[in-house]
């Protein structure tokens, strides 16, 4: 008997025993008996809510065990004779979860649907990607019959700007009686998301756990030495808890902003304050200071200019040679190579480790660098196990493809405990890496951030080489949420006592900023939802336009917009109260001071407008006058260091800022521009410039300056020169009244008259009233801006939906019927096409692009409706493999151009331009060419190629099921799928 039980009274022991018996009779009790570890409190709370018939949102750190709640939902479904769907954001995670659930419940009870893979799809438990479930809902699939529970793993993925809308579509359209289990990483607005789920799904329990089952320690790798990030040895748990407590208690603003102090302040209460816990290790602060000094001396210190000049002459840069001590601000001994980093982690017992490198090429290079350095992290027994697993994974791969796939170097790396993991890796290889790492056989994985998405690959330590990544458009710093997601992989529950997050020291690393990332768990969940063509037409088909509109207004995007409107409306109300007070303060006993103030305000606005327009007109006419000057014109320069007379040597007709060359009285040759004159310049006379004049010869300049002096004196005596009188000059008066200036002057005169004649003009307290009126007008403008923001955010999703419907109607996909808008035959085809280019695909199909092509050409044509190269990889349109395909591509481009015009007219997001980068590889593959032939001349990795082929197959499968297409086209689509499913595509069991 335990000490706790011995200290209990008999009555307490009896009550505890009764409670245990009652718990054992519940479904949660039965489920707990099948789990080989005690459930955490947050897991029990979530499971109890599910058993009570509620939906749940579980927000917990990576590795905390939130998937237990999803597995309990599966348990409940099977016990109740209902179906359970388990959805994931990526196919690799679906495969992993399928294997886990099949091992627990039996292969006959678990199915898998990932778009291109169907295993036991009518099973009571089906694992699928979220898009598959979305498509089922729109197709009203029979598979949905008997559905009781849906688990949405990694539900925070709805913030993804490319695919996130699918999560919201599923949540909104699931039948109301289906219980939803939403599993999310720790987010800062879980209550807001839960409130929305409660609104659209019914009663939803919000379960938030901040507890990490394995403590996480933060370090910086300086050279080969591991330095603690914080001055006090505290785990991530302590740091985050202190930060949250400080924020709730109204603590320091700096802490809330994620800017920890470099030195700890003593906590008056005797407990460690957030400032103490987040105080940066002084060793790192000093290192940063010395590095800054080194950089300053390198750039501005003694000899720095000469060294930089010498480097420029050699065509070198400091940053190109980071290895030299002291260059680029880097101190000697602060950088380590990748093999040295791995050795440092191994020496401290921190393997297995994941090294996050935000580059595929960087991951592959890291493995090669370690191999070249002779690193070997495995024992002979481990090598034997790895070799067996690797050779089994390659059983179905044709020997001719092994070299193309880089199999032998990949195998060599795995045998030494080293591997890369990224989207460009062949799916079969990637799955093997995941299995070997999970088994503890692979010691170091160099990975891109996709590994942090949910695949079960925990490690003892996580290394991040730099705190910035390329997001597809620019290099940006990683956020606190992304940092938490990446480092969440450190610490294996049940294996490790603690986890370790390590950041490599680099020049320019700010320890305080890193501490801010490491001590906060801010990961706001923001909707990326927007109505698409497919979504809109499916909603109209199922519910009609008005009901569809109201459904979209229930989206999380609109919920967040409405919540922000509540705050804005509160500000408007507050300002309206202030406006009423201002209005009372400016009341005048002589008359309506508000009216007087409006006249005064209008006068001020008109005068400012007139001043701006006058300045604009003055500049325009000044530019025009400079551009009209010709050689020989004598002008007066009234401003700047060149004031006086000058003769034009060369003209300049630059439309933006002409700068003619002149010779001044003191024989200087200069160019004059806007800054040298105070208004339009006009020639006062002209002189002849000799053809032999050379501005570089002092004598020529002296002679011409003398001619200039005589001409100016003669012009002053004689008055205006006759030769310049008829050149169409514009006077200052012409300038002053150009462009409707007279109307503005008349309005100013009229307003001044109204102001003087108003009764309030003679009030003794007029200026006091005027000050209150100015405040009133200023606040009124601010309030009107807030009202405009509210109007812009209200019904934003529904307004976008209306514009999408207008485009659909213009293309005949929606037609007016007796009951409002109805879906036409063309619209029915669009309903079955999913993807970023759904509308373009439907229009191309209707426009005849697929009419005169064979099976291989259809596959190539489908690729341009799927493929999207990275921005830097896009090039010119290549020559098509056949004339038929060339004609088909012209149809697609014509339809895209017209669609883009329609989208621009209706202020909608543009459909991406068709990309031809995959045409030749797909065409060759469909014609039966080998992998080496297909990939030669391209930048495609084998894994990328397989992934894109799978997406092409998915689109062809959709087209084959489109209603109303010709039997010939349906047959060709199925034939094209068969042509693509061979070789590496056929034997790749896992795909992203």
Helix content: 40-55%
Please list the strands of the largest sheet in the order they lie side by side: 4-3-5-2-6-7-1-8
How many beta-strand runs?
24
Average residue pLDDT: 80
Determine the structural class based on helices, strands and strand pairing. alpha/beta
Describe the overall structure.
The chain is of the alpha/beta class and 992 residues long. It has 40 helices and 24 strands. Strands 4-3-5-2-6-7-1-8 form an 8-stranded mixed sheet, sandwiched between helices. Helix 4 packs parallel to helix 5, helix 7 packs across helix 8 and helix 26 (593-627) packs antiparallel against helix 29 (741-757). It is globular and about 115 Å long. The chain starts with a helix and ends in a 5-residue tail after the last helix. Mean pLDDT is 80; it is low at 247-272, 314-328 and 721-739.
Fold blueprint:
Layout: H1 3-6, H2 10-24, H3 27-32, H4 41-51, E1 55-59, H5 67-80, E2 83-88, H6 91-105, E3 110-113, E4 118-119, E5 125-129, H7 130-139, E6 147-152, H8 165-173, E7 179-184, H9 190-201, E8 204-208, E9 216-222, E10 225-228, H10 236-248, H11 253-256, H12 274-277, H13 282-300, H14 304-314, H15 338-347, E11 353-356, H16 360-372, H17 380-393, H18 399-404, H19 407-415, E12 418-421, H20 427-438, E13 444-447, E14 461-464, E15 468-470, E16 475-477, H21 480-487, E17 499-504, H22 511-518, H23 533-543, H24 545-552, H25 556-585, H26 593-627, E18 633-637, E19 644-650, E20 661-664, E21 669-671, E22 685-686, H27 698-718, H28 732-736, H29 741-757, H30 766-793, H31 796-810, E23 814-817, E24 820-823, H32 825-831, H33 838-846, H34 855-864, H35 883-905, H36 919-926, H37 931-935, H38 942-960, H39 967-980, H40 984-987
Parallel strand pairs: 1-7, 1-8, 2-5, 2-6, 3-5, 6-7, 9-17, 11-13, 11-14, 12-13, 14-17
Antiparallel strand pairs: 3-4, 9-10, 15-16, 18-19, 18-22, 19-20, 20-21, 23-24
């Amino acid at each position: 008997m335990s000490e706790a039980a011995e200290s209990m009274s008999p009555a307490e022991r009896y009550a505890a025993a009764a409670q245990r018996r009652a718990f054992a009779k519940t479904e949660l009790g039965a489920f707990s008996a099948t789990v080989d570890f005690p459930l955490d409190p947050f897991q029990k709370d979530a499971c109890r809510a599910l058993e009570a018939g509620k939906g749940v949102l579980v927000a917990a750190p990576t590795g905390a065990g939130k998937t237990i709640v999803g597995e309990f939902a599966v348990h409940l479904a099977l016990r109740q004779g209902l179906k359970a769907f388990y959805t994931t954001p990526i196919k690799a995670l679906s495969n992993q979860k399928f294997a886990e659930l099949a091992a627990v419940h039996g292969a006959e009870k678990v199915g898998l649907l990932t778009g291109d893979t169907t295993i036991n799809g009518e099973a009571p438990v089906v694992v699928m990607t979220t898009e598959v479930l979305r498509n089922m809902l729109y197709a009203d699939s029979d598979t949905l019959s008997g559905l009781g529970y849906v688990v949405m793993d990694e539900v925070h993925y709805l913030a993804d700007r490319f695919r996130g809308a699918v999560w919201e579509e599923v949540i909104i359209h699931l039948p109301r009686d289906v219980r939803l289990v939403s599993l999310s990483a720790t987010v800062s607005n879980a209550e807001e998301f839960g409130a929305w789920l409660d609104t659209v799904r019914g009663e939803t329990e919000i379960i938030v756990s901040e507890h990490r089952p394995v403590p996480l320690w933060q370090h910086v790798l300086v050279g080969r030495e591991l330095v603690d990030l914080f001055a006090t040895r505290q785990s991530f748990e302590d740091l985050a808890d202190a930060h949250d407590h400080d924020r709730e208690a109204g603590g320091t603003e700096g802490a809330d902003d994620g800017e920890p102090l470099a030195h700890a302040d003593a906590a008056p209460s005797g407990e460690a304050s957030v400032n103490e816990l987040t105080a940066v290790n002084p060793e790192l602060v000093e290192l940063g200071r010395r590095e800054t000094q080194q950089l300053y001396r390198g750039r501005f210190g003694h000899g720095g200019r000469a060294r930089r000049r010498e480097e420029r002459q050699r065509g070198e840069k400091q940053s190109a040679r980071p290895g030299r001590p002291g260059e680029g601000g880097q101190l000697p001994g602060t950088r380590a190579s990748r093999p040295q980093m791995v050795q440092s982690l191994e020496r401290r017992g921190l393997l297995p480790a994941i090294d996050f490198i935000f580059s595929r090429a960087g991951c592959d290079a890291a493995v090669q660098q370690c191999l070249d350095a002779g690193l070997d992290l495995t024992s002979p027994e481990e090598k034997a196990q790895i070799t067996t697993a690797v050779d089994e994974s390659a059983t179905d791969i044709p020997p001719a493809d092994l070299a193309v796939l880089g199999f032998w170097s990949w195998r060599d790396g795995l045998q030494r405990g080293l591997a890369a993991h990224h989207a460009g890796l062949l799916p079969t290889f990637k799955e093997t890496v995941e299995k070997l790492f999970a088994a503890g056989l692979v010691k170091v994985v160099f990975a891109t951030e996709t590994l942090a998405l949910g695949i079960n690959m925990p490690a003892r330590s996580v290394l991040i080489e730099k705190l910035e990544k390329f997001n597809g458009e620019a290099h940006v710093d990683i956020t606190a949420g992304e940092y938490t997601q990446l480092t969440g992989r450190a610490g294996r529950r049940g294996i490790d006592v603690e986890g370790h997050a390590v950041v490599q020291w680099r020049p320019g690393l700010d320890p305080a900023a890193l501490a801010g990332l490491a001590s906060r768990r801010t990961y706001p969940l923001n909707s990326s939802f927007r109505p698409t063509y497919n979504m809109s037409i499916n909603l109209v088909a199922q519910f009609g336009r008005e009901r569809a509109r109201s459904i979209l207004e229930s989206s999380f995007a609109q919920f967040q917009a409405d919540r922000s409107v509540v705050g804005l409306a509160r500000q408007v109300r507050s300002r309206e109260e202030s406006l009423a007070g201002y209005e009372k303060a400016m009341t005048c006993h002589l008359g309506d001071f508000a009216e007087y103030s409006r006249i005064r305000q209008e006068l001020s606005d008109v005068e400012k407008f007139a001043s701006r327009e006058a300045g604009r007109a003055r500049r325009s006419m000044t530019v025009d006058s400079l551009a009209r000057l010709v050689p020989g014109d004598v002008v007066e320069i009234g401003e700047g260091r060149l004031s006086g007379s000058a003769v034009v040597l060369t003209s300049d007709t630059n439309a933006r800022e002409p700068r003619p060359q002149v010779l001044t009285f003191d024989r200087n040759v200069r160019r004059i521009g806007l800054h040298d004159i105070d208004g339009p310049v006009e020639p006062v006379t002209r002189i002849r410039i000799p053809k032999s004049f050379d501005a570089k010869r002092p004598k020529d300049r002296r002679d011409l300056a003398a001619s200039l002096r005589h001409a100016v004196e003669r012009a002053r005596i004689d008055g205006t020169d006759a030769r310049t009188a008829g050149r169409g000059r514009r006077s200052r008066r012409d300038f002053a009244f150009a462009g409707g200036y007279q109307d503005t002057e008349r309005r100013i005169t009229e307003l001044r008259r109204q102001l003087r004649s108003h009764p309030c003009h003679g009030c003794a307290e007029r200026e006091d009233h005027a000050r209150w009126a100015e405040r009133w007008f200023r606040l009124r403008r601010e309030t009107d801006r807030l009202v405009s923001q509210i109007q812009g955010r209200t019904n934003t999703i529904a307004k976008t939906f209306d514009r999408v419907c207008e485009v659909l109607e213009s293309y005949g996909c929606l037609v007016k019927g007796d009951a409002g808008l109805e879906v036409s035959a063309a619209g029915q085809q669009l309903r079955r096409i999913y993807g970023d280019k759904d509308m373009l695909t439907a229009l191309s199909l209707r426009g005849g692009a697929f009419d005169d092509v064979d099976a291989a050409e259809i596959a190539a044509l489908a690729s341009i409706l799927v493929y999207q190269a990275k921005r830097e990889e896009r090039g010119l349109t290549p020559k098509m493999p056949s004339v038929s395909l060339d004609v088909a591509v012209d149809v697609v481009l014509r339809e895209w151009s017209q669609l883009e015009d329609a989208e621009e007219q209706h202020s909608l997001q543009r459909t991406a331009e068709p990309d031809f980068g995959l045409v030749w590889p797909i065409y060759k593959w469909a014609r039966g060419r080998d992998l080496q032939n297909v990939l030669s001349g391209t930048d495609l990795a084998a894994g990328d190629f397989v992934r894109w082929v799978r997406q092409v197959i998915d689109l062809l499968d959709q087209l084959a099921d489109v209603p109303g297409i010709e039997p010939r086209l349906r047959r060709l689509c199925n034939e094209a799928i068969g042509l693509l499913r061979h070789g590496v595509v056929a034997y790749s069991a896992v795909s992203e």
